[in-house]
């Protein structure tokens, strides 16, 4: 019997990859407008920036300083500020849930299900996203890897979510975009897994059995059919 | 002969004190709304926060964490995020120049004067404000204490502004709100000083001769009369 639905956050509830790409590209344009004079194209500068993000992590606080150093420039504070302003303005413009997220969460709550978020990242940053997305009131629990000390796919973070909602792992549906983190981790603790084909992992195929989800959806609204079917099936079980 | 006008930034070109007060009060309200359960009133929490700002400086990155610790709470990331979101949203709403700033700067440029900003703080943060205020294109130079290594009223930061604009200090008008930093510093290097009665130093009286300005104004637009008068006087001098 399904009693709870757990969600990954980035690329599962809002277009995180698209946001990051647009924000970084606008930041680069803003640096050029503010006077960055360089032989590289916008696209080449973007590639350099992507490499910095890969090397130093997406939460490093000084990507634009590093970019200027990397292309042999002093980190001119005017250029850095222009990039920061463009990055933030773009981020806030894109920080909206996918269109069917809120009606779907509402329906799931009306069906009597507990809802949770299980996400990787810095606690304050992930909460900031939930608040800006207007989603913070929908969830009974929010679990962030920084607070637990382990990242997905570690079983502990999934088990902690079930524990906080007072349900068993097998009573949980887990919805996420990443086969390697979300699906693998939730499969290992016995949750029902739903992969959403969104964001930069959209076309990534499962590498092994553990990464194969029980269901696949292409937008959050389709989750309702999955959950209804699971509930019907368990009713059927009950009657047997 | 006046050839340049230099401006302090915070509380001289936009309502910095009002912004900080509104942003901090809204941050406290947001923490209470997000579930902060405490015996202190909003006003008392604001006083605690003000004390943190005085003790740790306005550029400390974790005021809201410190506030929670100070009142004996764990720094719950949900509460911190709620405060951060409210603080930033309020900040952006208030980050507008005083209504007559842009027409005044435009007129001063049309009069053939060089314009500069001389401000204390972190370089990227001060540039971010100028960009968000839409003022970054108006100035021929921007000098930020972090880049020079001294704060106002140190003479070096004022002399550097004159040097960059290729004018003598006595050819500069300096406009600022703080008698102890702006007026004293600019007086000492022989600039013409204009005190603007704005922000939290509005009612502070000069403590000594060095803090007494040549002119006082209550809004930026009044600067035009001062500058016109100075230009007329120096024309008079020329004819003598």
Main attributes of the structure:
homodimer, 240 residues, alpha/beta, Rossmann fold, DNA polymerase, domain 1, six-stranded parallel sheet, 11% strand
CATH topology of the largest domain in chain A: Rossmann fold
The CATH homologous superfamily of the largest domain in chain A: HAD superfamily/HAD-like
Q: What does the average pLDDT of chain A come to?
A: 95
How many extended strands of chain A? 6
State the helicity of chain A in percent bands: 40-55%
The CATH architecture classification of the largest domain in chain A is 3-Layer(aba) Sandwich
Number of helices, where a helix is a run of at least 4 consecutive DSSP H or I residues of chain A: 10
Taken from the alpha-carbon principal axes, the silhouette of chain A is elongated
Whole-angstrom Rg of chain A: 20 Å
Largest sheet of chain A: 6 strands, parallel
Largest interchain contact: A-B, 22 and 22 residues
The fraction of residues assigned to DSSP E strands of chain A is 5-15%
In the CATH scheme, the class of the largest domain in chain A would be Alpha Beta
> What kind of assembly state do the chains in view correspond to?
homodimer
Structural class of chain A: alpha/beta
The count of domains of chain A is 2
Strand order in space, largest sheet of chain A: 3-2-1-4-5-6
Provide the low-confidence segments of chain A as ranges.
none
Order of helices and strands of chain A: EHHHHHEHEHHEHEEH
